[in-house]
Amino acid sequence: MLPSRSGFARSLTLGLALVLGGCASGTPEPAWGTDERGRPDSQITVRVQNRQFSEVTLWAVSDGGRLRMGTVNSMGTEVVRVPWSGLRPLQVEINLLQGERFLTSPVNVPEGEQVTLVIESVLRESQLYRR
């Protein structure tokens, strides 16, 4: 005998809740701007040189999270500060106004460090590096 339609819906809802609840991590990731204990982070400094004829939007990517760093005008240079703690890999996602995107190779960056991002006219040739 098949369960009633309302009983089936309740069973399906309960099953989905159990499955999705099991996918959640037991330890929340620290928010950008705080360390694992919730204390304010140090910062890193990213010097950005945009050699594109387009404005770019930059995103810091690390440990599975993203943080909007801001925009840099066409052919412009900016210095951006990003909340940071410890030594961990940083990648920068570069989004052109026209829609093209590029993700840099990861660079291990300790807190307090300065890194340089050069956005080339050929986007895939852009580089992030430590001094």
List low-pLDDT spans.
Answer: 12-30
Mean pLDDT, nearest integer?
82
Strand-residue proportion: over 45%
Q: Would you count the extended β strands for me?
A: 9
Report the order of strands and helices: HEEEEEEEEE
The 3D shape can be described as elongated
Helix content: 10-25%
Question: Span between N and C termini?
Answer: 71 Å
Helical segment tally?
A: 1
**What's the Cα radius of gyration?**
21 Å
Question: Mind summarizing the main beta sheet?
Answer: 5 strands, antiparallel
Oligomer: single chain
Class computed from helices, strands and strand pairing: mainly beta
Can you characterise this structure?
- By secondary structure, the chain is mainly beta.
- Helices cover 15% and strands 45% of the residues.
- The chain has 1 helix and 9 strands.
- The strands form 2 sheets. Strands 2, 3, 5, 6 and 7 form a 5-stranded antiparallel β-sheet that branches.
- The N and C termini lie far apart (71 Å).
- Residues 12-30 have low confidence and may be disordered.
List keywords for this structure.
131 residues; 1 helix; five-stranded antiparallel sheet; four-stranded mixed sheet; elongated; mainly beta
